[in-house]
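Structure first, sequence second, as always.
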């Protein structure tokens, strides 16, 4: 199979079998269990699948990768403890992980103190704005999600939006970003409600939104099970208005949880979710089709954008180690920052000293759920 690993390891000069040399140790702290397991589980599986493939292909710099994974279960304090263990005891040279914004921000100071590069897989813009020397990320930001959603709403000739946001780290941050950029798109936030991570019924908040004069659209910043509950409640209340979710629910599990209430929901996401229906000349097609087939063949599970973020992070890291020609963490950090023209599942990545994510708004696709499947909004 002509997968991307051939490209990822093409520059390696092997002088002896990879298994005969000391491994290059990389770490991952993921929410593999707990309320954010829908993020961490596909991330963990992706890293394991591709580290094995890289090692089968000869490793990196002629040396095998050794992946050391800890499960934070979404707990920020545990994540920080594991981060300390990775740098002090396991002696990793780089980190790909951090499933949530909360765990990422708890771990970031550790990697900064030890000058070890950390590629996060979480969504909030605070991870890369302001730029921190050793902290990078692969997913689109919550701010970009607001902009993509508002751009679509504007194109549909509407402007009056009701927000219902989760109060967790991602939902809270995205709400703030949406409020901040709304005016740039002529959007008026006419209702602003929220719900907690353990809430199981959002009909009171949605009733308030429904009764707001002039309401045209509902937007739900959040991730986890909350957005699926909101989606079902919208249908139960008979609210027949355009309804947007964030990229925080960009997996088939959201459609399964929301059921037929998901019909017509729009959200910004990467091309990965629509890999099979991308035009043949789409520049992202080869990457996302390859990752999708590899992941689904290995796991028997539907692909999600979250595993794709882990793929992007690992491949960016491998490319940086190759360009650095070294496993020195500072040299790797510098090479990550110089990433240019990398085609990942999230889009084309061009990093710089001022941009530790490297994606622009064109990397997002607007999707709509039709008959239980993802479709592209033309």
């Amino acid at each position: 199979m002509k997968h991307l690993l051939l490209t990822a390891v093409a520059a390696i000069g092997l002088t002896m079998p990879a298994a005969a040399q000391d491994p290059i140790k990389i770490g991952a702290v993921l929410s593999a269990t707990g309320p954010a397991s829908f993020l961490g589980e596909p991330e963990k599986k992706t890293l394991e699948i591709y580290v094995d493939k890289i090692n089968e292909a000869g490793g990196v710099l002629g040396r095998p990768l050794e992946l050391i994974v800890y499960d934070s279960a979404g707990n920020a304090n545990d994540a920080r403890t594991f981060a300390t263990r990775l740098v002090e005891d396991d002696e990793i040279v780089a980190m790909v992980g951090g499933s949530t914004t909360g765990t990422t921000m708890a771990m970031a100071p550790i990697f900064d103190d030890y000058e070890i590069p950390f590629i996060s897989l979480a969504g909030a813009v605070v991870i890369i704005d302001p730029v921190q020397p050793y902290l990078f990320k692969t997913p689109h930001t919550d701010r970009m999600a607001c902009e993509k959603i508002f751009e679509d709403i504007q194109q549909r000739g509407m402007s009056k939006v009701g927000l219902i946001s989760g109060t967790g780290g991602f939902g809270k941050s995205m709400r703030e970003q949406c409020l901040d950029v709304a005016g740039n798109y002529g959007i008026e936030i006419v209702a602003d409600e929220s719900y907690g991570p353990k809430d199981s019924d959002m009909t009171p908040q949605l009733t308030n939104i429904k009764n707001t004069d002039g309401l045209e659209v509902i937007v739900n910043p959040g991730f986890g099970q909350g957005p699926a509950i909101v989606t079902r409640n919208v249908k139960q209340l008979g609210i027949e208005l355009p309804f947007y979710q964030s990229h925080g629910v960009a997996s088939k599990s959201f459609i399964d949880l929301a059921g037929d209430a998901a019909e017509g929901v729009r959200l910004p996401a990467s091309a990965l979710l629509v890999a099979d229906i991308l035009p043949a000349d789409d520049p992202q097609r080869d990457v996302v089709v390859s990752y999708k087939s590899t992941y689904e063949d290995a796991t028997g599970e539907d692909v999600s954008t979250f595993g794709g973020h882990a793929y992007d992070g690992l491949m960016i890291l491998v490319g940086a180690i190759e360009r650095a020609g070294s496993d020195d963490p500072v040299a790797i950090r510098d090479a990550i920052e110089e990433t240019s023209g990398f085609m990942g599942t999230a889009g084309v990545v061009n990093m710089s000293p001022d941009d530790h994510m490297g994606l622009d708004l064109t990397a997002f696709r607007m999707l709509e759920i039709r008959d239980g499947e993802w479709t592209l909004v033309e």
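Margin note: The first strand starts at residue 24 and ends at 30.
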